[in-house]
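From the pipeline queue, job 12 of 40. The input is one protein chain; the requested action is below.

Action: predict structure.
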Amino acid sequence: MVVPRGHKTKGAQLRRRSHLRLKNIPLVFCEHCGHEKLPHRVCKVCGYYKDKEVVNVLSKELKKKEKQRKS
């Protein structure tokens, strides 16, 4: 026969789950535009990373608008 599991106290259950909490995301300010962004990532607003333009954000927006017009 199957043996039922033992009862866990509420404190033991919460201690086991203590590492499952949400953690704060460390945000930094973009050097180029000043918006908040994740560290070591390209800024979504201006497309710069380490004072170099990596992604041309304006051309992406124009392509999206052209796609919307066609459909």
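Job complete. The radius of gyration is 24 Å.
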